[in-house]
Amino acid sequence: MGNLIDAIGNTPLVEIEHFSLKEGVRIFAKLEGNNPGGSVKDRAAHNMIFSAMERGEITKDTKLIEATSGNTGIALAMIASVYGLKLELVMPETSTRERTLTMEAFGAEVTLLENMEICRDYAEEKATKGDYFILNQFSNPDNYKAHIKTTAPEIWRDTKGEITHFVSSMGTTGTIMGTSIFLKEQNPDIQIVGCQPTEESSIPGIRRWPKAYLPKIYDASRVDRIIDISQADATKRTRELTRKEGIFAGMSSGGAFHAALQLAEEIDKGIIVFIVCDRGDRYLSSDLFG
């Protein structure tokens, strides 16, 4: 028994069973859609808000603001509702309607702007005026520390320390940074693999940031390899995850799965774990499953 916050984390790690792999290679999916808010971002959202409250940076009267592509916003809205905090979320106008409605259902105010860079500028400008406290997932160490505390230890435990490769899509880069720090401390030989879209691709949850907007928490030395993912491959693999494995996920998860399959072709033995960032029901109004 416990409260909603206690339900964050300890998500399932399930094996991919319906794809032809070499005998010595196994792929596992970390199902982050099983978090109460439906994504891996529940972990970072709670750690950012709770840690700021512990330090006295946030009180019940504080108004929060954050730019988000969707999942972090939903997670923050959920956590803010638990703690009774006011929250404005700033999101690209191309985001699916499901995301906006979910944030509003939790009581958040949602502002839609042209793109993610403009959203970030807007949130930072409002915060500098003093009326809002910005959590700033892109530069906040509490983002990646959530994964040092929870995500990575769970993966290490559930693979009995036998993981050889970790694959994650890169947006704010919090998941891959925190998981890398912990796993490399356990075994420096574990390969940390990030995914980013090809230049012409648009994949929700994965970004190729312009240099000026590269997340400040990102440390390139903590990623052994980056694999570019096309929109077509991410879409194909997302649909295959759903129809062959019963894993209902978003396109960033399909991108990570594509990278995991590529790695599986390259090695003769190993345990590959990739992050399934969220659930597919956030994309039903798009053409992802069309």
Automatic annotation (TrEMBL):
Name of the gene encoding the protein in the UniProt record: cysM
Native organism: Sphingobacterium hungaricum
CDD domains membership: CBS_like
Modified residues (N6-(pyridoxal phosphate)lysine): K41
Assigned protein family: Belongs to the cysteine synthase/cystathionine beta-synthase family.
E.C. code: 2.5.1.47
Segments forming domain Tryptophan synthase beta chain-like PALP: 6-278
Obligatory cofactor(s): pyridoxal 5'-phosphate
Name of one Pfam family that matches: PALP
Known catalytic reactions: O-acetyl-L-serine + hydrogen sulfide = L-cysteine + acetate
Gene Ontology molecular function terms on file: cysteine synthase activity
Protein name: Cysteine synthase
Example GO biological process: cysteine biosynthetic process from serine
Pathway membership: Amino-acid biosynthesis; L-cysteine biosynthesis; L-cysteine from L-serine: step 2/2
Sorted UniProt keywords: Amino-acid biosynthesis, Cysteine biosynthesis, Pyridoxal phosphate, Transferase
Positions contributing to pyridoxal 5'-phosphate binding: N71, G171, T172, T173, G174, T175, S252
